[in-house]
Every structure is written in structure tokens, then in C-alpha cells.
Specification:
34% helix; single chain; Rossmann fold; globular; binds cytidine-5'-monophosphate; alpha/beta; 2 domains; eight-stranded mixed β-sheet
Length: 413
């Protein structure tokens, strides 16, 4: 358990928005102060309907900021400064409204200006009616924020302030939020095993054009590759992520190169070298269309067009066997629907990889496009099954393993 002074020297900017759960922030501020944190508070207009700036200010020991056009405050500390003078920004309770504004990048009051201008990590504790939480717009907004690196804490399931309403939407309790804040600092203050290392990661599908409007693609979402990039950033690495067309946001802290075709992906990987580690998580199309049409192919007299396919360059094999710039650790993926281990072992040798992360992508597993993954790790030292976990869990574990290989703590094989 972290000691009571665990948050000593930490500066927290707490943004309180207008929800009934705002009262929980009073307790949170007390506990943060108890642990030595400096707490500065921004309140929206609506938040002040639920708790008063007087009680908040008395507990934080500082004035409360609420007005974007408060000249004294702007003179004293401008809203940009306010957004930067913190180690962590916490939004609690985070209403559906502030979440939507954050996702859209709106800035129409002090809280939203601060949130748009900040360059610091952000943690939010949603609180709203279960129907609002379940609304597709909220799901989209929360998913988007998560993808940009915002940490979402809760909500809990329980009774709502409105009579008879029950479900997910209750803000987490102050001590739970405190634990999430402490966990955040424990992670950021932790040693960075990949500090000073450059890691190149491929992710997502490739699109291979048939004509100007049509292409060949596959079902890869990029979730696993992007999660690996995020885990590598967290481990302190310099990350170059080369991504095919995906609908998920770029991970924070990585240099992202967007490409479409396999050949562009190879070019981008080669341009990113030298690297200490390369992880090829992209589902690269094995073939492209030869002699792609410059005009849209028409239905009609010439009958059904036949597509002549030619093989794409194998990026993993090219880099795994690179004569001059092979990264010290090279990792490939094997998405298979049959003979998982045998196919992955063959790939390890054929492509010159140090590790192969194999997974069964038969439709019934739900792995392709889903949020969870079950993988088998194949190296020259043998085969290892990892328990089912989120794609983030798999990413963290893989980065840990790769770090051990790089540091020599584990033989490459
Ligand atoms: O041969 P297969 O496509 O199953 O190999 C999968 C592994 O090889 C993945 O790591 C994938 O990113 C990589 N690969 C590649 N270039 C290709 C085909 C696959 O880098 N053209």
C-alpha cells in the first residue's frame, strides 16, 4: 500500500462539472491534501449549483477558478498556465456534456478551455444517468477519449439520484478515485525499461487498390498494434507507429505514419530504421492487384473482370533478415485459423523473427476487431500460452517480454 505522503509534490488540477456527485469531490480534495498533493480547482457554472466554491476553496486552500473572463485571475494565472501547472488533470464528476465537449474539442468556458489547452495526462470519472451512459454518442465519445490516452475511472453500477433509476452511471467513490490517481502516479513514476530505445510497430490492415474507388482489405482494426504502441510509450520508448487505414485514434506520444498499401508500409518501416525493436502487428495484404486500373472499372460488355494478383513484399521477412539494419529484437504475429503452432513455428524461422505472437482468428473467437485476445508465444526456446486478456494486457506483457530480451535478461534463442 502506498504511504500517506505518496502524493507529496504532485500538483492536481481538479475540474468539477455539474452533477449531483460533485459532493464526492469535497472528500476527494481532503484525501488528496492529506497525502501531500497540491490541489487547484476549476468549477463549471453548473457545478456551483451542487457544491459552493466557498467549501471547495476552504478544503483546497486556494481560490477556486470558474470564470474564463475573470481579469484578476487572468492577470494572476491565465487559463493556459492553469492547464499546464499540473501533473494530472482530473475531471470529476464528468458529465455526458463535458465528455462530449472534450471529444469534440469545444472550448466555451474555463473548464473546456483548460481541458483543450492542457498538455498533461487527464483522468475522468464519468457520472450520469444509465441511459445517457449507454447512449451511442457517449460510447463513441468515451471510446475516442480513451484512444487519445484519457484514463476513464468508472462509472459504478448502482441506484441513481433519480427515483427508480438503476444501472451503470454512478460516479466512483472518492477513495476509488484516489486509488486511480495514486495508480496513475505509481505508473508514471515507475522505471522506464525502454528509455532511450527506438521501437517500430506496424498496425492495422493495408488497402490494395483495384481501381481509383475499390480496394482489397481485411478485418484488422489496429487495436492490438496501437495498444502495443501505447504500452511502448508507457515503457519510455521512442515509438514510430506505421498504421494502415483504421478508425481508432493515434496513440498519444507515438510518432504515427499513416499509409495505405503494403509497399508504402515497407517504405515507411525502412525509413524509420535504425531501431532497437520492431513489432509487426499489421495484417498486411499478401497480394496486390497487378496493373491497377487508372479508371473505375465499368460493368458491361467485357464481362466480369478477372483480377491478376501479385505477391506483396513481406515486411517482417525483409526486416527480420536485413543485412545491415536488423533491429536487435524482431517480433511477428501469426493470425491463423488452423494449425496455429506449426504455422507460427514455420513463420519464426522463415521470416527471421525472434518471437511470434500467434492467435486463432477463426470468426467464433471474436479476436479480429474485438477488444480481447488470447495468444500463444512462440520463440526458439519453446511455446507459451498466455491467459486471455484485453489487447492492452497482451500489449503490456509483450513489451515487458521484449524489454527482457533486449536487456539480455532472457536469451533470444
Ligand atoms: O505470413 P503471414 O501474413 O501470416 O505473417 C504474419 C506476420 O508477417 C505478421 O507479423 C505480419 O505483420 C507480417 N507480414 C508482413 N508483410 C507481409 C505479410 C505479413 O510484415 N507482406
Amino acid at each position: 500500500m502506498p504511504g500517506p505522503q505518496m502524493l507529496d509534490t504532485k500538483r492536481i488540477l481538479l475540474v468539477i462539472t455539474g452533477g449531483i456527485a460533485a459532493y464526492k469531490c469535497l472528500e476527494l480534495i481532503r484525501r488528496l491534501k492529506e497525502r501531500g498533493a497540491a490541489v487547484r480547482v476549476v468549477m463549471t457554472k453548473a457545478a456551483q449549483q451542487f457544491v459552493t466554491p466557498l467549501s471547495v476553496g476552504a478544503l483546497s486552500g486556494d481560490r477556486v477558478y470558474s470564470d474564463l473572463f475573470d481579469l484578476t485571475a487572468e492577470h494572476d494565472i491565465g487559463h493556459i498556465q492553469l492547464s499546464r501547472d499540473a501533473d494530472l488533470v482530473v475531471v470529476a464528476p464528468a458529465t455526458a456534456d463535458i465528455i462530449a465537449k472534450m471529444a469534440a474539442g469545444l472550448a466555451d468556458d474555463l473548464a473546456t478551455n483548460v481541458l483543450l489547452a492542457t498538455n498533461k495526462p487527464v483522468l475522468i470519472a464519468p457520472a450520469m444517468n444509465p441511459m445517457m451512459w449507454a447512449h451511442p454518442a457517449t460510447t463513441r465519445n468515451v471510446g475516442w477519449l480513451k484512444g487519445t490516452g484519457v484514463t476513464i475511472v468508472g462509472p459504478n453500477v448502482g441506484a441513481m439520484a433519480e427515483r427508480g433509476e438503476f444501472g451503470p452511471g454512478r460516479m466512483v467513490e472518492p477513495m476509488e478515485l484516489l486509488a486511480a490517481i495514486e495508480a496513475h502516479f505509481a505508473a508514471t513514476d515507475a522505471p522506464k525499461p525502454l528509455a532511450g530505445k527506438h521501437i517500430v510497430i506496424t498496425s492495422g490492415p493495408t488497402h490494395e487498390p483495384i481501381d481509383p474507388v475499390r480496394y482489397i482489405a481485411n478485418r484488422s482494426s489496429g487495436k492490438q498494434g496501437h495498444a502495443i504502441a501505447a504500452a511502448a510509450v508507457a515503457a519510455g520508448a521512442r515509438v514510430t507507429l506505421i498504421s494502415g487505414p483504421v478508425t481508432i485514434p493515434d496513440p498519444t506520444g507515438a510518432t504515427v505514419v499513416h499509409i495505405e498499401t503494403a509497399r508504402q508500409m515497407l517504405e515507411a518501416v525502412e525509413a524509420a530504421l535504425p531501431a532497437d525493436i520492431a513489432i509487426f502487428a499489421a495484417a498486411v495484404a499478401d497480394w496486390r492487384v497487378e496493373g491497377q486500373s487508372t479508371q473505375k472499372i465499368k460493368k458491361g460488355a467485357s464481362g466480369t473482370p478477372g483480377l491478376q494478383l501479385v505477391e506483396n513484399p513481406d515486411i517482417l521477412a525483409t526486416i527480420g533478415k536485413h543485412a545491415t539494419a536488423r533491429p536487435q529484437v524482431v517480433v511477428g504475429f501469426a493470425a491463423e485459423t488452423e494449425n496455429l503452432t506449426a504455422n507460427a513455428e514455420a513463420k519464426l524461422l522463415k521470416k527471421g523473427a525472434d518471437l511470434i505472437v500467434a492467435n486463432d482468428v477463426s470468426p467464433e473467437t471474436g479476436i479480429m476487431g474485438g477488444d480481447r485476445n488470447t495468444v500463444r508465444i512462440i520463440s526458439r526456446n519453446g511455446v507459451e500460452d498466455w491467459p486471455e486478456g484485453s489487447k492492452e494486457d497482451v500489449a503490456r506483457r509483450l513489451i515487458e517480454r521484449v524489454g527482457a530480451l533486449l536487456g539480455g535478461a532472457e536469451p533470444i534463442g
